[in-house]
Design goal:
Shape: elongated
Structural class: alpha/beta
Number of domains: 2
CATH architecture of the largest domain: 3-Layer(aba) Sandwich
Number of strands: 17
Number of helices: 15
CATH class of the largest domain: Alpha Beta
Low-confidence stretches: none
Distance between the termini: 15 Å
Length: 470
């Protein structure tokens, strides 16, 4: 299940509450070590060299505990107590070009600036530009504040124990944290803390979406209306519809502009395609709608902008607004029982808030909440590294899946379509928050699946695999 983002004091309380149950620190370390080794094996191949850097604290113990589970790899352990003395050993080992370095030097207990010896030691690790797997926190970062204590390991992956710590989520620390993953099920009791910010886990979606009834038909699974596509951007409409189809609503109807009708319609088979007209009405069977992909065209009729605002206010089903349509909305409310979703990337969020993009990134939680409040309390999917999902109040969820290969034109259109296709289904509308989170997680998890098997995948590959991440 999802876990809260916590601070160091809460982590200590969690550990102490665990020890009172009779669980031992040694057993937790053993389990953590086993999971570190499992991740290290996935990152390497048989007979690869792994260099383990172990300090004198619990992080060092965690790293050492991985050794017995790395029997199929060549392993060098460097116990570091005096960095000035151990630096020549480190440099000699780094010259062997290990396939992976496991960082177990410092953990969450570090709360002081590092001396020159440690700075040089860490600088040597970073200069080698080798993949680093950090245990709990990249050595040198303050896990509460995110402050670098003079130097910090630049990890490719950080395996944090139990739950993420606040300092690891700061956007400025991405070069040090790399990909953040949570080591759960390591022998700690269920987390006793609750918070505003929560980390989504794949287990959150066990059995989701629910199994379809054998008696279901097209009408059972909803009808999505998509308003998308314009001159020079007709591909966005195609990708949005194909993303929607992977969610498997009963029907999809695309309304597009006349100038791109033929190139769009010729690429879609099972979706219905109609030319949008000012007097256009949605089919009576419509259960959700999406507006935005590919509407960034100077020839866009003003009537279409008015239509987006009107449906935001009045359409009875869920509505997803993406891309160019974000700028068409007025700051207006809608009936609270309705589902409304905005899906901005940081640049679009900055326009919605009339702020520089760096201000959005500096406090993404505050940015998400303010967007939601300005637009009637809607759901907001603030896209980017560790996409956030939430509203003006209540819990906000951090998405763990995805990678930089999602930074391709059409990726957002595909997500918008997939999300709207899920929300079109009546069975998935009851818990809209979970459905939104699932769409975001699935989109990222498929990207991770593709990146694990090929380096040159494209958005069309993403569309083809949507729904297949488990």
């Amino acid at each position: 299940m999802s876990v809260p983002v916590i601070n160091i004091a809460q982590m200590r309380e969690w550990e102490n509450a665990t020890w009172t149950t009779g669980q031992t620190e040694a057993e937790v370390i053993r389990r953590v070590g086993k999971k570190i080794a499992r991740r290290a094996r996935r990152l390497t191949e048989a007979d690869d060299l792994i260099l383990v850097l172990a300090g004198k604290g619990n992080n060092g113990a965690d790293a050492r505990a991985a050794l017995e589970h790395l029997e199929s790899r060549r392993v060098e352990l460097l116990d570091v107590t005096a960095p000035e003395n151990d630096l020549p050993k480190l440099e000699s080992l780094l010259q062997q070009k290990p396939a992976l370095v496991i960082d177990g030097l410092f953990g969450i207990g570090l709360n002081r600036p590092l001396d020159e010896g440690w700075k040089k030691f860490i600088a040597a690790v970073n200069a080698a530009q080798l993949p680093v797997l950090a245990v709990d926190v990249p050595s040198g970062l303050n896990a509460d504040t995110g402050e670098m204590q003079g130097a910090a390991i630049e990890a490719a992956i950080t395996l944090t124990v139990g739950a993420p710590k606040f300092g690891l989520l700061l956007q400025g620390n991405v070069p040090y944290v790399g990909r953040l993953e949570v080591l759960s099920d390591v022998g700690l009791i269920p987390c006793p803390h609750h918070g505003e910010l929560n980390w989504t886990q794949p287990e959150d979606f066990a059995g989701f979406p629910p199994r379809r009834l054998a008696t279901g038909h097209k009408g059972t699974f909803g009808h999505l209306a998509v308003v998308a596509g314009g001159y020079g951007f007709h591909g966005a409409a195609v990708l949005a519809v194909r993303g929607a189809q992977r969610a498997q609503p009963g029907l999809v109807t695309l309304f597009t502009q006349e100038e791109v009708y033929h190139p769009v319609a010729s690429q879609l088979q099972s979706a219905m395609v109609r030319v949008w007209k000012p007097e256009e009405k949605l089919p009576d069977t419509t259960t959700a709608m999406l507006a935005g992909p590919g509407l960034a065209t100077p020839s866009l009729p003003n009537e279409m902008r008015g239509m987006v605002r009107r449906f935001w206010r009045d359409f009875p089903g869920p509505m997803v607004v993406d891309a160019s349509a974000l700028d068409m909305l007025a700051m207006q409310s809608f009936p609270k029982e309705l589902v409304r979703v905005l899906t901005p990337h940081p640049g679009e969020a900055a326009r919605l808030l009339n702020l520089p993009p760096q201000n959005v990134l500096a406090n993404r939680v505050r940015s998400l909440r303010e967007i939601s409040r300005r637009y009637g309390g809607c759901w907001v999917v603030l896209k980017g590294h560790q996409t956030l999902v939430g509203r003006g109040d209540g819990e906000i969820f951090v998405n763990p899946s995805g990678n930089p290969h999602l930074a391709q034109g059409g990726s957002g259109d595909t997500l918008a379509g997939y999300l709207a296709g899920l929300l079109a289904q009546p069975a998935l509308q009851a818990d809209a928050g979970k459905t939104i989170r699932y769409a975001v997680w699935q989109h990222g998890a498929v990207a991770d699946k593709l990146s694990a098997t090929r380096a040159n995948w494209i958005v069309e590959d993403l569309v083809a695999e949507l729904g297949n991440a488990r």
